[in-house]
TrEMBL record:
It comes from Streptomyces durocortorensis. It is found in: Cytoplasm. The keyword Kinase applies. It comes from the Bacteria. The gene is adk. This is Adenylate kinase. It catalyses: AMP + ATP = 2 ADP. AMP binds at residues 31, 36, 57-59, 85-88, 92, 161, 172. Coiled coil: none annotated.
Length: 219
């Protein structure tokens, strides 16, 4: 299956993507994670991306599209993938369509995670992420780790992302509304969008998502 996950920052895309990718046996491709890996490795690409990320802005398409394309060209993605955080504007969605067309394949579904704005702000303010694996995500109130600052899953250090500060979150939400939300209409015109509520327990949202993806998976 080839799936795109969309939703505002704090919707739980990373958390859900990890479970969904596992359930569907497809790789989870997150452009935000790819950028963060480049930053921690000190690559040129990381240097180019950093200032945009810290400001909560989108990294320019010239950088992002090439990076996403390289990742999707890897062998493990030949049979399908779950895209998390890409595309993030209509230009990227169009570029993805061209890429897929060149390969003679199509998207199966675009899963839209819906969550009210006040909930998003609460989720991001308390979010703590594992340095070893960004799919290990905790929340100080909703999903606290057993030991403060330590990942339950692997013992890694938990930290607050630089771009999770209140001011940057406001910019990221604005960027989401103005630049990313239009891709939902773009994909709706292709009949690909399934919308679910991202409220409630993580496992309940995963179950809801699997149910919503069933027709695309079976079709
Ligand atoms: P995320 O981990 O998905 O929240 O992404 C963190 C940051 O990485 C975003 O705020 C952007 O600065 C950058 N980023 C991730 N994916 C993209 C993308 N598809 N296009 C442009 N910038 C991106």
């Amino acid at each position: 299956m080839r799936i795109v996950l969309v939703g505002p920052p704090g919707a739980g895309k990373g958390t859900q993507a990890a479970y969904l990718a596992q359930n569907l046996s497809i790789p989870h491709i997150a452009t935000g994670d790819l950028f963060r890996a480049n930053i921690s490795q000190g690559t040129d690409l990381g240097k180019q991306a950093r200032a945009y990320m810290d400001a909560g802005q989108l990294v320019p398409d010239e950088v992002t599209i090439g990076m996403a394309k390289d990742r999707m060209a890897q062998e493990d993605a030949a049979g399908g993938f779950l895209l998390d955080g890409f595309p993030r504007n209509v230009g990227q969605a169009e570029a993805l369509d061209v890429m897929l067309k060149d390969e003679g394949v199509k998207l199966d579904a675009v899963l839209d995670l819906e969550v009210p704005e006040d909930e998003v702000v609460k989720r991001i303010a308390g979010r703590r992420v594992c340095r070893n694996n960004s799919a290990h995500v905790f929340h100080l109130t909703y999903n606290p780790p057993k030991d403060e600052g330590v990942c339950d899953a692997c013992g890694g250090e938990l930290y607050q992302r630089d771009d999770d500060s209140e001011e940057t979150v406001r910019t990221r939400l604005e960027v989401y509304h103005t630049q990313t939300e239009p891709i939902i209409d773009y994909y709706r015109a292709q009949g690909l969008v399934v919308t679910i509520s991202a409220l409630g327990k993580v496992a309940d949202v995963t179950a809801r998502a699997m149910e919503a993806l069933k027709p695309a998976n079976e079709g």
